[in-house]
Amino acid sequence: MMGDPIPAEDCPVCLCGFDGDEVQPQQLPCNHLVCKACLQQLYQRNVRQACPLCRATLPPGPETMMADAVTLFTRGERQSVADDRNTSFRQAIELCKQVLELDPNNADACSLQGRCFHQGHGVDVDHAAALPLYTRALKINEAVLGADHPSTATTLNNLATLHKDMGNHAAALPLYTRALKISEAVLGPDHPSTATSLNNLASLN
Predict the structure, then answer these.
(1) Alpha helices in the chain (DSSP H)
(2) Buried (b) or exposed (e) across 185-204, using 16+ Cβ within 10 A?
(3) Taking 60 as the threshold, does the pLDDT of residue 135 lie above it?
(4) What CA–CA distance (Å, rounded) separates 59 from 49?
(5) Does residue 109 have a pLDDT over 90?
(6) Which of 125, 169, 176, 183 could be cross-linked to 120 through a Cys-Cys bond (beta carbons 3.0 to 4.6 Å apart)?
(7) What are the tens digits of pLDDT across the range 35-53?
């Protein structure tokens, strides 16, 4: 557990003053503070990831934590004991939250966390909690990968299924339709993902 942060008014990397808005402080395990933007850059650089002040090793970056979250989620799906299964799912959710602290534009973290709330993995089913996570994942994928990327189609299907499960078929229909068009155009009419999109769309009838 981390202690109280070492007081600082400026980020030691960019030298910008912490204002709680554009320059938000992030506490490291060594209790030094850096701004979140600089911390993201430290993780992205292919160098030793360490505190810029004391050189203490940083905790795992968002990519490593996201991979661990997926492993935990997959393990939870395979476990037969309910308590063990729920523990794995809850750990995956917590890692997703930590990933989004470091990388707010991580669509995978949004989608996985949304899936847990949508399907009741480790938590009670909570469609209201899943909706903004799926919506956020879709916006990120559209902005980063493009409107016609297969990952965007997957997120469209997730969001559409959530709307269907909430009884809002009118909202699900255009999302399923768009996902199908992407799969047909990018992956081809005979791809398994296209078949899944067709089945999803047919399920509304």
Answers:
(1) 36-44, 62-78, 82-102, 107-119, 127-144, 150-165, 169-186, 192-202
(2) eeeeeeeebbebbeebbeee
(3) yes
(4) 8
(5) yes
(6) 125
(7) 888 887 777 765 567 888 8
